[in-house]
Amino acid sequence: MTVSNHYPKPGYSLWYSLFAAPAAWLLQLLVSWLRLDHACTRDKVAASLRWQQIGISGVALLFALAALVIGFQLYRYHTRNGQDRLQGLSRPAFLALASIFVSATFLLGIVWAAWPGFTLPLCEAMR
Questions:
Q1: 73: Cβ contacts below 8 Å, ≥ 6 apart
Q2: Measured between alpha carbons, how far is 106 from 25 in angstroms, rounded to an integer?
Q3: What average pLDDT does range 82-102 have in this prediction?
Q4: 120: phi > 0 → left, psi -120 to 50 → alpha, else beta; which?
Q5: How confident is the model at residue 119 (pLDDT cuts 50, 70, 90)?
Q6: C-alpha–C-alpha distance, residues 57 and 44, integer Å
Q7: Does pLDDT of 8 surpass 50?
Q8: Which of 41, 34, 13 is nearest to 103 (CA)?
Q9: Radius of gyration over alpha carbons of the chain, in Å?
Q10: First to last CA, the chain
Q11: I need a labelling partner for 23 at 20 to 30 A (CA). Which of 53, 107, 108, 120 fits?
């Protein structure tokens, strides 16, 4: 029995699961900071601005959750032998595990960045 080290090229879903959560976190921070900076320097904080911040964070959260779910699906696809442990023994399984770790980490970052918008006044949450 020979073991083949030739793996197919990673598909778009793997790249999405690796980079969607960091991109969503980055866009959430940039758009939120620009919106709040613009509103707070003019001393005219609109009432709808909090809802805009919640919407921006919600969209980023959805993209990160989708990346996490895709990462889990890819890992299950590439490890069909019923392993109980998380081991990335092949390249596709390793990349799927990496995407799970990256997506989960940035998902927590999105929640962490959105939390002050719920608990603090908006101009203080920006600082």
A1: none
A2: 7
A3: 75
A4: beta
A5: confident
A6: 22
A7: no
A8: 13
A9: 19
A10: 61
A11: 120
User: 80 or 98: which carries more pLDDT confidence?
Assistant: 98
Q: Does the pLDDT at position 127 exceed 60?
A: no
Neighbours of 1 (CB within 10 A): 2
Contact indicator for 97, 86 with CB cutoff of 8 Å: yes
Q: What is the 3-state secondary structure (H, E, C) of the chain?
A: CCCCCCCCCCCHHHHHHHHHHHHHHHHHHHHHHHHHHHHHHCCCCCCHHHHHHHHHHHHHHHHHHHHHHHHHHHHHHHCCCCCCCCCCCCHHHHHHHHHHHHHHHHHHHHHHHHHHHHHCCHHHHCC
**Residue 76 and residue 71: Cα distance in Å, rounded?**
9
Cα distance between residue 8 and residue 95, in whole Å? 12
Read off the pLDDT of each residue in 39-51 and give the average, rounded to a whole number.
73
